[in-house]
Specification:
The complex is a heterodimer of chains A (114) and B (111). With 114 residues, chain A is mainly β. Helix content of chain A is 0%, strand content 51%. In chain A, the strands form 2 sheets. In chain A, strands 2, 4, 5, 6, 9, 10 and 11 form a 7-stranded mixed β-sheet that branches. The chains are: A mainly beta (114), B mainly beta (111).
């Protein structure tokens, strides 16, 4: 299994540009998440999904959009990038189970909006 | 005040020392995760706890549900243990699974 694959690793955007962060997992997990990590802060939830076709907002959804057309893929779309979206982004999936629940993370995307 | 607090924020230790990282939470939880974020940025899951204690190699994690506190211990620390350690409280809300993350403890182990 490849686990959670997230691309790109780095990206620089100009203000107003758009981009999509790709996330795919091959573990057949229903739950997937997008987080952002800002310096000195805990991971903040942007959007999450509990299965194909079902998504919902997290704590900081403004300026982002997601879709979940398949169990494997959970892309995050940034529309009209702003400097406040400069951050490190992580995609994650959750392995369900009473005793073996586990989180799997992608390698992260460092995004700068200039 | 954050719902999940970690202490200390930064910790420097000499190789071989016993290390304790603490996590306190104010919300009701069903489980708590300990994560390790490598210097390169990648995050890996270390433990999931809902009660008691778990051990994996030199790592031991404990949780006290009544006191809303968890600890991560590292025995015989090594420079390769240098990383940021993050606790995450599993906070079931309305049937969905969300996590509240601490801000992390940055550990540096010196040779």
């Amino acid at each position: 299994n490849a686990g959670v694959t997230q691309t790109p690793k780095f990206r620089i955007l100009k203000i107003g540009q758009s981009m999509t962060l790709q996330c795919t997992q091959d573990m057949n997990h229903n739950y997937m998440y997008w987080y952002r990590q800002d310096p000195g802060m805990g991971l903040k939830l942007i959007y999450y999904s509990v299965g194909a076709g079902i998504t919902d907002k997290g704590e900081v959804p403004n300026g982002y959009n997601v879709s979940r057309s398949t169990t494997e893929d959970f892309p995050l779309r940034l529309e009209l990038a702003a400097p406040s979206q400069t951050s490190v982004y992580f995609c994650a999936s959750r392995q369900q189970g009473y005793l073996n629940e586990k989180l799997f993370f992608g390698s992260g995307t460092q995004l700068s909006v200039l | 005040k954050n719902e999940v607090e970690q202490s200390p924020q930064n910790l420097t230790a000499q190789e071989g020392e016993f290390i304790t990282i603490n996590c306190s939470y104010s919300v009701g939880i069903s489980a708590l995760h300990w994560l390790q974020q490598h210097p390169g940025g990648g995050i890996v899951s270390l433990f999931m706890l809902s009660s008691g204690k778990k051990k994996h190699g030199r790592l031991i994690a404990t949780i006290n549900i009544q006191e809303k506190h968890s600890s991560l211990h590292i025995t015989a620390s090594h420079p390769r243990d240098s990383a940021v350690y993050i606790c995450a409280a599993h906070h079931p809300t309305s049937g969905t699974y969300k996590y509240i993350f601490g801000t992390g403890t940055r550990l540096k182990v010196l040779a």
